[in-house]
Design brief:
A hairpin with a 7-residue loop joins strand 1 (about 40-45) and strand 2 (about 55-60). It is built from nine helices and six strands, in the order H-H-H-E-E-H-H-H-H-E-E-H-H-E-E. The longest helix is centred in the middle third of the chain and has 22 residues, at about 85-110. Helix 5 (about 70-85) crosses helix 6 (about 85-110). It is an alpha+beta fold and about 210 residues long. The chain has a four-stranded antiparallel sheet, with helices on one face.
């Protein structure tokens, strides 16, 4: 149930019961237990005429049930690196991680000829890393969604990680990538709109410190 709310956003008890194949009463009882444990909370949302909808969403404790790549230790290490070696060391660290990710994703793209195939491969690769990625296509454009960020604490502490990921996506997908939702800015997920490049144009990857 937590996974369903995490990946689909706030849910009604009735929708959860249908999605999980349980009775409405069982869904309500489970939600009540999760609320008592501090993992979910209920809000009301007006939806036109009629009674407001009762929606269940994850609390901070609920989100914390999903992997966050040793968040506290990661932030402490970043702070120590910055304090001991300066901002340039952080930039070099991010650049090294970016290069490793790009090489790994490019290897995973082997044989993918279309943009759709590359987006699909990237979703598989990112899901293995804990990002709970999915994608959809409409009118030749793609929406790439990551329902979880296992490095959220590090990304919040150092926004360079997010900039590097955006560059990496553009490079390996060979497409224009625009972030339209961002967990670090308070959204429940990170979402990217992906569009094909103009004919004959390749994605331009900028490294930290480049013009």
């Amino acid at each position: 149930m937590l996974l369903r709310i995490k990946s689909r956003g706030p849910q009604r008890a009735a929708d959860l019961s249908l999605a999980l194949g349980i009775t409405a009463e069982a869904a309500r009882q489970t939600l009540t237990r999760l609320e008592a444990d501090g993992l979910v909370e209920m809000t009301t949302e007006a939806r036109g005429v009629g009674r407001p909808a009762q929606l269940w969403s994850l609390t901070s404790a609920g989100h914390a049930r999903f992997p966050n790549a040793h968040a506290e230790l990661t932030v402490q290490l970043l702070t120590s690196v910055q304090s001991l070696f300066g901002e340039d060391a952080i930039d070099r660290l991010i650049s090294a991680r970016e290069a490793e990710s790009r090489a790994s994703y490019r290897e995973g793209m082997a044989g993918a000829r279309t943009l759709g195939e590359r987006v699909s491969r990237l979703a598989e690769l990112r899901t293995r890393e804990g990002y709970m990625a999915e994608w959809s296509e409409e009118g030749g454009e793609f929406l790439f969604v990551e329902n979880h960020c296992p490095i959220c604490a590090a990304a919040t502490s150092c926004v360079g990680f997010c900039r590097a990921e955006l560059r990496t996506f553009e490079d390996v997908l060979e497409a224009k990538v625009v972030r339209v939702e961002h967990i670090v800015e308070g959204a429940r997920r990170c979402a990217y709109r992906i569009t094909p490049l103009e004919s004959g144009r390749k994605a331009r990857t900028k490294m930290p410190g480049s013009a």
